[in-house]
Hints:
8 helices, alpha+beta, 39% helix, 8 strands
Amino acid sequence: MKDLIAELQAASRRVDDRTLPAGAAKVVAVDREYPADVEDVWDALTDPERIARWFLPVTGDLRLGGTYQLEGNAGGEIRVCEPPRHLRLTWIFGEAPGPGDSSLVDVRLEPTPGGTRLVLEHAAVVPPDMWDRFGPGATGVGWDLALVGLAAPLAGLEMGSPEELERDPAVHEALAAGRDGWGRALAAAGEGPDPVDR
C-alpha cells in the first residue's frame, strides 16, 4: 500500500464561507492530482461498480436529476452531470434541514500534464456548535481518506478491507496528518489558534 501520509500531503486544502439557499454555509475544498486521464477518473467517480471499490456501494437512479444512496452514508440528488468534467450533487444524512439545498458536493476534473486534477468542494449549512467543536476536520478528513482511496484503484492497488485499515497504524497516522492539514487550512482562512487547535 502506498504511504497514506504522502498521499494526504499530495492534496491542498481550503476552508471558506458561502451562502446556500438554506443559509450561511461552510466550505471544505480539497484539490489533488491523479496520474490517470480525465475519462478514467470520471468513470471511477460515476460507475457504481468502481465507486464501491474505493468508497461505498451506491444505489439509485444515477443520472442527471436522479437520486443516489451510499450504503450506510449520505444520499441525495444529482444536480449537474457534465461528463467527464463536472459533477454536483446534494449530500444529505437523513432529512435535509430547512428549505433548499443545505449540503452540496461539487467535483471538477481537468487534464494536467501528469494526469487529472480533481477539485472537490463540499459546502454545507453546519450548526455553529458543531463547527466550533470539529471545524473542517469533521468532513474534510473523510474527504481526504475517500480521495486517497480513489488513488489506489486508479493505480491498480488494493487498499485492504475496512477491518484491516482500522487496525493499521499508518491509517491512524494518516488521519492525524489530515486533521493537521485541515487545521492549517483553517488558519489560512483567518481563524485564530484556539479554533485551529480544536
